């Protein structure tokens, strides 16, 4: 059984002292009890319990990951041109046709990175934090993801993307959560791809033949399993050309470059132990 023992502690930083409630849950722990993803396979239900679906007008819009009990980490482009008041967040979801025990939340606020920019091809500083109108309670099926250390490098690590996005170009979204494993490329290999002219240092590339994220997976997490058995979010699904096109790796926002910004905008949320 998942239990939470809450305490109050002082969070000191960013020039202010904030009272935050902490839990004895652990972030990034996959639940073994229980992006369009192209070339993916069915995830064990609730095995990635931080993953959320963001629907707009009852249709799959973007993905995201719980990082506190009231904050979702996602992509800036998911909100830049769309009204978040038309969106709903599904938490603890596995199958879109089975919403039993799924928590649904509206969004009360969205902070898009202040340096977000967009061109016809790519988005830069493509990261955002959505605040839920009401917090969730952590349980077996709802666990926040761990954040990486500032500047942490994941070159040549195997990353996992998860989502309910389209399973191919011109194909429909998946009803069940899919996952796919990708190799995270070095910055050098990324710059040697045909995307080089569009890349910035705050972006990372990942690729495996026949696998990719697609429309609807935007904003979802790129996860890396650490040796101690917990996942950290290394990236946010950002942009790409086509889906699983071997000429173009998928591009992700480097979460480790934004840790201070993330903590600044989620200071009033409850976190799990790392």
UniProtKB/TrEMBL annotation:
Keyword Protease in record: yes
Residues making up the signal peptide according to the UniProt record: 1-22
Residues in Peptidase S1 domain copies: 37-267
Any one biological process term the GO annotation gives: proteolysis
SMART domains referenced in this protein's UniProt entry, alphabetically: Tryp_SPc
Matching Pfam families: Trypsin
Domain of life from the UniProt record: Eukaryota
GO terms of molecular function: serine-type endopeptidase activity
Key words, A-Z: Disulfide bond, Hydrolase, Protease, Serine protease, Signal
Alphabetized PANTHER family for the sequence: TRANSMEMBRANE PROTEASE SERINE, TRANSMEMBRANE PROTEASE SERINE 7
Protein name: Peptidase S1 domain-containing protein
Organism: Mythimna separata
